Amino acid sequence: MKFHLFDTQSGVPTVKVEKENKSFYMHSSYDPLKEAKRWATRVGMNNNLDIFVIVGLGAGYHVQALHRLCPKVPIAVWDFNLSFASWAKKAGLLSWLDNQPFISYSFSESLQEIKEKFVPLLQQAGATLLLHPPSLEIIPDSLCEIRQLLNEYLLHLRGLSAQEELMCENFLNNITLGDPGIVEWLGRYQQVPAVLVSAGPSLTKQLLFLREISKSKCVVIASVGTALHPLLKGGVKPDLVMVSDGQINVLEQLVGAESIGIPLFYLSTANHQAVAYYRGPRYIVWQKGYGAAEQKAAERREPLIKTGGSVATCLLDMLVHMGCCPIALVGQDLAFTGGLSHAIGTHAAKEVNPHFASCEVKDFYQNGTVRTSLNLLSYMRWFVRYIRDSGNPSCFWNCTEGGAYIDGWKHSSLFKFIKHIEST
User: Fold this and answer.
1) 14: part of which helix (H) or strand (E)?
2) Is the pTM higher than 0.85?
3) Which of 36, 289, 307, 419 has a beta carbon 3.0–4.6 Å from 61's, enabling a disulfide?
4) How many distinct helices (H) and strands (E) make up the chain?
């Protein structure tokens, strides 16, 4: 693999890479600065962050553009190719980093060093991972698992971008249904305990105890859509269910439960066909960060719900708006416990290829590690930030009894959580 400086049409040099029988540029061959500004504007919008972690320095244009846009946010740049880092220094591409207190540059091909220094950056509560796609191409075969993991995450991010058109279609159809918002639910469960049930692999072992809890009627049981069928099969009828996915496969979560009267809460951009199919009481939820939803919420004087990329993060904020406290997470593994993606009995359950779960985090019991993915790691960071910003950390319990440890949350068995409720 060889690296060269190449003069672009705009007069600003880019980096040309020769790899095997192909060559490519690390920035635009026409106008790298314009491309960098566009990239920075896109990724830096609507972010309230503690640190950016960027994989890929290239010639540094995108990093500089992001720093200009967010000058007070630290940026940690990493490369996983020693020969590129050495060449970049000799080519003078690192000199602009001198006297830059908010920008750091690191490079390594050591798995141990990457695990000890790079991964902890991602686990910070306010960290956002950004990828410079051409830089992924220069990660050597010795780090093929990391390269594959980052490429999978890149596909995930591109998938989110591709969903924008679908979100708009769903939104326009959902608002024609005339469903009420959640105003009538605000404060309904003031100081009432709640169990937020997700569909992680560890849910299966909790079903019997959840059935006993549901009989007492002293705890709100709130389910994400994916967990609805396992709960019903286990004899648990939740008090409410929430869906957020814009894809049609969310319909599978509701088929067979559409007429049993469970209140359905759905994000304004959730799949409109699945929402219209549901015959029980429905409530539309306006999410923060989606412009059209924010406008509707303002018009209707209804609250905005925070989203963190998953239905469970949305549901947590909604339960807080309802007044629930304390709130226990069940089935929120945030990891591939036992090598599975979801609980047995869910439509989404499957075995996970270890190559797609090569990121390790501290486990629930803090005596080992569990494998996870970058998108699940982003949800975990959201949970950490949420409790940090809540001002009431004693309200939040992680009773998953499996999966990942969530910093700041009280970790306990579900049994001990219920005993705590009964004693207070």
Assistant:
1) strand 13-19
2) no
3) 36
4) 15, 17
Residue 44 has pLDDT above 70, yes or no: no
Say if residue 385 is exposed, middle or buried (CB neighbours under 10 Å; 0-12, 13-18, 19+): buried
Instruction: Let me know how long the chain is.
Output: 424
Strand pairing report for 327-330 and 396-398: parallel
CA atoms of 42 and 350, how far apart (whole Å): 34
**Spatial CB neighbours of 318, under 8 Å, sequence gap ≥ 6:** 182, 242, 265, 285, 305
Q: Return the C-alpha torsion angle 243, 248, 251, 252, nearest 10.
A: -110
Q: How far is Cα 198 from Cα 225, in angstroms, rounded to an integer?
A: 8
Contact 181, 286 (CB under 8 A): yes
Q: What are 325-370's pLDDT values in tens digits?
A: 999 999 999 988 777 777 766 766 677 665 555 578 899 999 998 8
DSSP states along 159-225: HHHHTHHHHHHHHHHHGGG----SGGGTTTTTT--EEEE---GGGGGGHHHHHHHHHH-SSEEEEEG
Strands 282-285 and 127-131: unpaired
State the first-to-last Cα distance of the chain, in angstroms, to the nearest integer.
Answer: 65
pLDDT of res. 48: 55
Burial of 376 (0-12, 13-18, 19+ CB in 10 A): buried
User: In which order are the strands placed within the sheet that holds 13-19?
Assistant: 2-7, 13-19, 22-25
Tell me how far CA of residue 176 lies from CA of 180, 279, 303, 324, 373, in angstroms: 11, 16, 19, 30, 37
Tens digit of each residue's pLDDT (9 = 90 or more) over 98-122: 989 999 999 999 989 998 999 888 8
